[in-house]
Write a structure and sequence with these properties.
By secondary structure, this protein is of the alpha+beta class. It contains seven helices and eleven strands.
């Protein structure tokens, strides 16, 4: 699933290309990916709207449009949003094509068909519940170590599932949670409320570091992820534990292990993360 660095990379690649362009039409090949409104209303409303801005909140893309509307996109597991010139290729898993007034197109593709799009007035109560309940952005200046420590000490759950809880922190997923925990030397099964001040500080810094590194390297392409220009990321070349079961830990040389925690695979070093 695209996590914060991947969605932010898509935003950064698309924003300069799309800002100021107008939608001249839409073709919907798979109606179920349109969560709201009904597909025929979706097409009628978006046609003629100009793209004012493109923002990100957690793992959601938010297209600010004229007329007081927002196009909300959640890519889920295998979704992508790719800008192409008029003659550019499209994916065989393309479900929605947006036509733009400069002759280019914006493709929404999704192999697993879990991604969803909403086109709603600003402030509408019909938006995705997950967007309304998002926790703080981990890279915002307002998200301090003190706030992080206070939030941790209120939760008795294991730290890995807690980091994946989008209402706790927005944007973290399996890849960057595993990488941050390894870098901080903390077991994914460690109870959140028992972390020491030093451990909390290490984890806070590690979360911010791995996310910033992921963005700098245009995201992690383990399977399907591509950015807004159709390019793969590079951060998979720098992963220390994720998807490296049985390989040597780059810190201590012991073997990386994998365990199901909260129905999700967690990769960690048993020696470094006791």
């Amino acid at each position: 699933m695209p996590e914060l660095p991947e969605v932010e990379t898509i935003r950064r690649t698309l924003r300069p290309k799309l800002a100021g362009l107008k939608f001249t039409g839409v073709r919907i090949y798979l109606p179920k990916v349109i969560a709201a409104p009904a597909p025929e209303h979706f097409t009628a409303i978006i046609t003629g709207k100009k793209i004012i801005d493109l923002q990100r909140r957690g793992k959601y893309l938010l297209f600010g449009l004229t007329g007081g509307y927002t196009l909300i996109v959640h890519l889920r597991m295998t979704g992508s949003m790719v800008y192409r010139e008029k003659t550019g290729p499209s994916s065989k898993y393309t479900h929605v094509v947006f036509y733009l007034d400069n002759g280019s197109r914006l493709f929404f593709a999704d192999l697993r068909q879990f991604g969803r799009l909403w086109l709603l007035p600003v402030g509408s109560p019909d938006g995705p519940p997950g967007l309304k309940n998002l926790g703080p952005e981990p890279l915002d200046k307002s998200f301090t170590r003190e706030i992080f420590e206070k939030k941790l000490h209120c939760r008795r759950t294991r730290i890995k599932p807690l980091l994946l809880d989008q209402s706790f922190i927005a944007g973290l997923g399996n890849i960057y949670a595993d990488e941050a925990l390894h870098r901080a030397g903390i077991s994914p099964e460690h109870p959140a409320n028992t972390l020491t001040h030093r451990e909390t500080t290490r984890l806070y810094r590690a979360i911010r570091d791995v996310l910033q590194e992921g963005i700098k390297n245009r995201g992690t392409s383990v399977r399907d992820y591509i950015d807004g220009e159709g390019r793969a990321g590079r951060y998979q070349e720098m992963l220390r534990v994720y998807n490296r079961e049985g390989q040597s830990c780059l810190k201590c040389g012991n073997q990386i292990a994998r365990r199901k925690i909260g129905n999700r695979s967690s990769y960690y070093c048993p020696a470094c993360q006791k």
